[in-house]
Amino acid sequence: MRRSKYRRANDSKWFSGRRRIIAVAATLAAFGGIVTVTQISSASTNDGQKTALAACDNLKAGGQTKLSTNTRRTDYTTNGGTVTQHPDDGGADVATTAQVRARCREWVMNNVAQTTKGRGGKNNGGGNNNNGGAATSAPATGAASGGASDGASAPASEAATTAPADNGGNNNNGGNNNGGGATAAPTTAPPGAGLGILTNSCDTSNLPAHDGFQKGDRCVSTEFGEVGSAANNPSLLITAAPRQVNRNTAFTLQVSTRNLIRDRFLAAGQGGYYVESSVLQNGLVRGHFHTACRMLASLTEAPAPDPVPAFFVATEDSKGGATPDTVSIQVPGLPQAGTAQCASWAGDGSHRIPMMERANQTPAFDVVKIRVR
User: Please, what is the angle between helix 97-111 and helix 47-56, to 10°?
Assistant: First the structure.
C-alpha cells in the first residue's frame, strides 16, 4: 500500500528536502497571520535559508478584486455572535506586498531546515516530500534525480523563477541518498493510465504558477488532498427561503449542512485561494460554506459568470459535523427588481467544493430563485 504523500502543516518534515526550499517563493503567500519582521540576522542562516529568504523578496500581493455590491466589507457575526461571516471569501481583506514578504521570511526562519553539507546520509528528512501546495519547484544545483547530492543550493535567481511542479510525484531529493545510483523506473502505472488523460500536473502547462490570490490564467499545483467515504461526504440544503421580497429589504435564508466541520477558512484576499489541500478530521471535511445572490438577466439561458453578485459570504462558526444542523444567513437586501438566484455550497479550507468518493453523488450545493419586486 502506498504511503500518503500529503503532509499537514504542523509536520516538521512537510517542507523538507532541498527542492522544497527553492519552492518557498510561490508557496507562502497564503500562510498564517501577518507577522512584522524587523531584522533577520544573516549569521543565523545558511545558504539554503538565504536562498529561500531571497525568494521571499520577489513575492507580490494579489491586489483588490471585484466585490459583491450589497455585502459588508469586513467580517461580521450573526446568530448571536456565534457565526462568523466572511464577505466575498475575505476578498476585501487584502494583504500588502510588504506583509506577504514579511510573513514569508518569518515562515522560512521557522520552517526551512538547515542544509546539511556533505554527501551521503538522509537528505533533509527524506521520504516523499510532496505537500502539493501552490508552489512550483526549481531544480537544485548539484542534485541528481535520486542520486548523489552534495548539499549545494540552487542560486537565488532560480528560486524566483517558475519551474515544473512536483505535484504529487516522489520528490527526487527524498529517501536515503547514499551518494550513488539513479532513480529506478516506475513499477506501477500512474492513475488514469490508458484513458488518454491530457495531463495530471502543471509540468506540461505554459501558464505561470497560481500564487494563492484570485487570478486566472494560472496553473494550480495544489494536490486535491483527502477524500472521505461516501457516507461521510458533505451535503447541503437550503431549507427555507422567501418566494418573493421587496427591493432593498432584508431577508433570511436557512442553510443546513451535514458532514462538514466549519472551522477552516483562508482569506482569498490574503492569498489563501486554492492553496490548501483537503483535510479530513475523523473522516469529515474541514472547511466552511458559501452563500451568494445574483440577479438573472434571463431565465432561458445560462448567465454570464464574471459579474460580481449582489451578496456573497463565507460562513465559518467552528461548528458542524456528522449531525445535520442549520445556520441562518441574513441577506441585507437586493437592489433591483427581477429574479434573484441565491445559492449555497460547501467549501474546503481553500474554497473548493469538497470531493466525493463516487462520481454519481450530488455535490454539497443548493439553489433557489426569488422574485424581487
Answer: 160
Among 255, 333, 275, residue whose Cα is nearest residue 90? 275
Q: Please, are residues 370 and 342 in contact by the beta-carbon 8 Å criterion?
A: yes
Q: Determine, yes or no, domain membership for 129.
A: no
Tell me whether residue 161 is in a domain. no
Compute the distance between CA of residue 168 and CA of residue 4 in angstroms, rounded to an integer: 10
> For residue 99, how many other CB atoms are within 10 A of its CB?
17
CATH number at residue 301: 2.60.40.2550
Q: What is the pLDDT of residues 33-83, one digit of tens each?
A: 433 333 344 444 577 888 888 888 888 877 777 788 887 888 889 888 888
Residue 186, in any domain of the structure: no
Quick one: pLDDT at residue 191? 74
The CA angle 92-94-95, to the nearest 5 degrees, is: 165
**pTM (2 d.p.):** 0.58
Percentage of the chain lying above the pLDDT 70 cut: 66
Range of the domain at 328: 76-93+224-372
The grid cell for 104 is: 514569508
Residues 141-194 pLDDT 10s: 333 333 333 333 333 333 333 333 344 333 434 444 444 445 555 555 667 766
- Is the sign of the CA dihedral 10, 12, 16, 22 positive or negative? positive
**What is the average per-residue pLDDT within 296-307?**
96
pLDDT of residue 303: 96
| Domain contains 47 | no
> What is the reported pLDDT for 184?
52
Total domains, the chain: 1
Rounded Cα–Cα distance for residues 135 and 139 (Å): 13
